[in-house]
Automatic annotation (TrEMBL):
Major facilitator superfamily (MFS) profile domain ranges (all copies): 227-430
Record-level Gene Ontology MF annotations: lyase activity; transmembrane transporter activity
Keyword Transmembrane belongs to the record: yes
Name assigned to this protein: Adenylosuccinate lyase
Organism from which the protein derives: Luteimicrobium xylanilyticum
Annotated compartments: Cell membrane
Keyword Cell membrane: yes
Topology with respect to the bilayer: Multi-pass membrane protein
Amino acid sequence: MSTETPLRRRSLARHADFRALWAGDAFGQLGAQLALLAIPVLAVNTLAATAWEMGALTAAESAAFLLIGLPAGAWVDRLRKRRVLIGADLVRATVLGVVVACALTGVLTMPILYAAALVMSCATVFFDVAHQSYVPSLVGLDHVVEGNAKLQATASVAQVAGPALGGQLLRFVSAGAVLGVNVVTYLLSVVFVSRIRAVEELPPREERKPMLHEIREGLAFVVHQPLLVRMVACTSIGNLGWSVISALETLFVLRTLGLSPAALGTALSAASVGGLLGALAGERAARLVGEARLIPVSAVAMVAPGVLVPLAGVLPWPPVVSLVVGLGLTFFAMVVYNIATVSFRQRLCPPRLLGRMNASVRFIVWGSMPIGGLLGGWLGAWLGVVPAIWVGVGISAASALPVVLSPLLTMTTLPRYQEDPTDATDPQKS
């Protein structure tokens, strides 16, 4: 892929192609946040979903990472990533349009919602793998931390604005109508990504290997990097725990705590300010703490605030305060952690393997999410919503162990890919 003239530090705002990707990502992220609020509210308030049904819905929203996560990476490495991003957004917009039509005509059912969530999760697999593989080649390896920080900041702004906007819209219109706004945001994302002018250079066809071989190659890269394996284990266990919580979060807030959908949106929006601050602080934190040491530090920082969520109904102050503080501090640490780990693996991996590497990582770290969703639904039906959330908090706490009990605490810098194999950095010697 051809890129623009190398830029000075902190100058990606002047990079025309990155600006187009950035704007498209902003609209896509905003729409995704609207959907994260509106779909569960639609299931709980309109379709009277049970704890088990909410768990199944959460599982459907991420099931594709288990079903097609690995081959998606090999496919993405063979395709132009800009086209993959555009196609994925068009699929998501179309599926949501069908859900909106069903909701507004009164024919929506939980099976339809499951099917829509599954198709959208398939599109999201391709979008996320292509997106993470696209950034390094678009801006250069020296700017991936800056690029990821800017994109993460945008995602965090969307996490603030999306639930707040969705919560206010839910005061006046149905959850189905809110999803109609999401359709528009995905289409706007398509418009901006279409404006990227960089020409991608695909590997020659004669260099391609059988699909199964390429999938194994991507997995092999991940499992043979000791530091990367520990980060993947931390993220996977953490996602398992948070999926248990997420499956029951809307039921907990709307039924157990007795709050309104608008209050839920406001709480999530206020808590997401923590994520925005984390995005703004991520690059500076890496310089102050050390990019390697920051990973276990931020992983530990994600643990303690989570206990405030299941305690929201019993502490001597309004439940919204506990939700905002607990989730806000967690989001702050989570975003700092994500910036550090995503930037590490982008710089460590050879460019030709980026799609397969990202798909392999996503297969493992997001593959635990449908399991967590089903586990949350089952535990919610068996133990009750609040005890099930406590189980999720406990699993999340255990996620920090792989990176805390690792060499990362004694390191400052992380290894990166060197094009010259005789000068390649060996992660095991860092």
